[in-house]
Design a protein that fits this description.
- This protein has about 200 residues and is α/β, with parallel strands linked by helices.
- The chain has two domains: about 110 residues, Formyl transferase, N-terminal domain (Rossmann fold, 3-Layer(aba) Sandwich); about 90 residues, Rossmann fold (3-Layer(aba) Sandwich).
- It is about 35% helix and about 25% strand.
- The strands form two sheets. It has a seven-stranded mixed beta sheet, with helices on both faces. It has a two-stranded antiparallel sheet with strand order 8-9.
- The longest helix has 26 residues.
- The radius of gyration is 17 Å and the shape is globular.
- It binds 5-O-phosphono-beta-D-ribofuranosylamine (GRF).
- 5-O-phosphono-beta-D-ribofuranosylamine binds next to α1, β5 and α6.
- InterPro entries: Formyl_transf_N, Formyl_transf_N_sf, GART, GART_AS.
Length: about 200
């Protein structure tokens, strides 16, 4: 029997793209079962786009400023992503909330990785907020995106310790190491094995 074609991943980024790089590296192995077919960004000049170009992966940029309304931007982003016929769309450090049109098109297969143990510390300063609160355990959450801010059904979580002398940078980096491994592991499992969601419970058979 021939192997099925690899699942098609579109990855959205806004920054350094280390999560993207982990997916690019993993997909070099055919047994991983997925391939990054495009990388989208909401801004130019970021390392994430350079990483995609270095890997020979097509890129596109949809900046909110380039559109008259946020809905126009959302529709353009959805159209760009759709061109690449993704099986899974991955927000990996993408700093924009998508809108109704994007969710109508991809809400059943749009996932995000967040650098906190949700539902604690949603938003863009997960490690900073966790440190300020004084928690002893931090981590990362992989989830399906819904219309809320970091509220969708949880696929996986990974914990790391918070050390007494942690700085925001040190904690952020410790989380990112665990987060990347979790992302690679679970994206592979989702595309190879499929999933169900019932009453917020995500199951990978
Ligand atoms: C990740 O830690 C993600 O949780 C947060 O931003 C970081 C993105 O890092 N929202 P990178 O661009 O993948 O290196």
């Amino acid at each position: 029997m021939t192997d099925p074609a690899p699942a098609r991943l579109v990855v959205l980024v806004s920054g350094s793209g280390s999560n993207l790089q982990a997916l690019l590296d993993a997909s070099a192995d055919p047994a991983y079962g997925a391939q990054v077919v495009a990388v989208g960004a909401d801004r130019d000049g970021i390392a994430g786009l350079d990483r995609a170009a270095a890997a020979g992966v097509p890129t596109f940029v949809d900046s909110v400023k380039a559109y008259e309304t946020r809905d126009d931007w959302d529709a353009a982003l959805a159209a760009h992503v759709a061109e690449f016929k993704p099986d899974l769309v991955i927000s990996a450090g993408f700093l924009k909330l998508v809108g109704a049109e994007f969710l109508a098109a991809f809400g059943d297969r749009y996932i995000n990785t967040h650098n906190a143990l949700l539902p604690a510390f949603p938003g863009i300063h997960g490690p900073r907020d966790a440190l300020a609160y004084g928690v002893k355990i931090a981590g990362a959450t992989l989830f399906f995106v819904d219309a809320g801010v970091d509220t969708g059904p949880i696929i996986a979580q990974v914990a790391v310790p918070v050390l007494d002398d942690d700085t925001e940078d040190a904690l952020t980096e410790r989380i990112k190491v665990a987060e990347r491994a979790q992302l690679v592991d679970f994206v592979g499992r989702l595309v190879r094995e499929g999933w169900t969601i019932q009453n917020r419970k995500v199951r990978i058979p």
